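Hi C.,

You asked whether I'd gotten around to modeling the 438-residue construct. I have! Everything is below, sequence then structure, no commentary in between.
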Amino acid sequence: METKRSRRIFNIVMVVLIACIITCGIMAVGNLKGWFGSASSVVQATEVQGVTSIERKGVAYTLKKDTHIQPGDNIETKNGSQALFEIGKDNALRLNDNTEILFKTAKKDDVDIQINHGEIFVDAGKAPKKFSFKYGDSVATIKGTVFSISAQNGSSNLNVFEGKVAVKTKSGKTYSIDKGKCLSIAESGNGKVAEDIRDIQAKSLNEFNINSALKCKDSRNLCFSKATLKRVIADREKEKTVAASGKDDGSGEDGDDDSDKSLDKDGNTKSKGESASSKSSKTGKNSGSKSSTTGSSSSTGTQGKTCNITIRCDTILNNMGNLTSGKEQFVPSSGVILGTTTVEFTEGETVFDVLKRVCNIGGIQLEYSWTPMYESYYIEGINNLYEFDCGSQSGWMYKVDGWFPNYGCSSYKLKGGDDIVWCYTCNGLGADVGGPTM
């Protein structure tokens, strides 16, 4: 009898211990992942689109909606993902894709964020008493305003859409950036830093900035009206539609229509909508020629995402007097080196990867160099047309969906449907090809 009683007591004790262990485990995981909230934290994830990770106390997992942020949390959005955070009352922080930030503090009157890389948009209707952002070697202090920060390797941009932002830079200077202004910082290869304040232009904003601004409350007095921003989107959509349709001016002058061609990720060319493809061979010609097709091979059947790419130098046609002697042979009469072509790409590939591939297949000369400061490739020449070949402000630029990124082409990770245009600028450092004016 005594033995049965002892066993019963032992079993009860074991059950209680196991229950305690399970409860402690749940509490530990819940505390780590913020299931039970945080009394001191005023930051909470309110929207998570795509894959976004959070690293807390050395443990990484997928960020979920309603997660309360704790000091030391590292947040990273993956390609094609975005995340939105609510900070106290009437303050929102939106992260673009491929962005990584660290919450150094997340208290009611003290929010300190470090931007490791990427892009954020902040709508601070009622900013905390201490609200600061560190990006690169600069620190921005906020007092209730709407702004965005893009921090890439060796360069950064801070756009102020409403209010005013104070920024202290590596040089020791403190700037007061007013509404409608942009602070641009760029480091050169020799270590020199250029700091420049200029006006923001609606057409110079990327899709992330425009869409984020459109989501601001109507009570915000932004430097651009929502009607203006919507017009920019409409113009870009129109440009994209024209490019995809193959009706781009001058693109079919030689009788062929590049817009009806596409390249799969293995470099095979095919007509849109067809399953069979012809293997492209280099033509060796570099003046507006297109890749020829020889023989045929069946398609792999594995289709990835696609983008469109165009290469043009038509601005040179209006500046032939400034063109380096002997370079005329490399300028097509249409000004189009490569008509709009649809290209397959795989996740993680960049604008540079696609440019390199189409030039290799099409027999178009391409020269580039690696820039350690920006950790990106710099395009020196395409089709034997180089920087400064048509004036002191000439050279190659690229835009994606009508926007000229402020960082290198090998840092821009592609998304499905992107429309890439490589264009040669002759005047205004891009102003003549639709870029922002200085």
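If it helps when you're writing up: The chain has two domains: 33-224, 246-433.

Thanks,
B.
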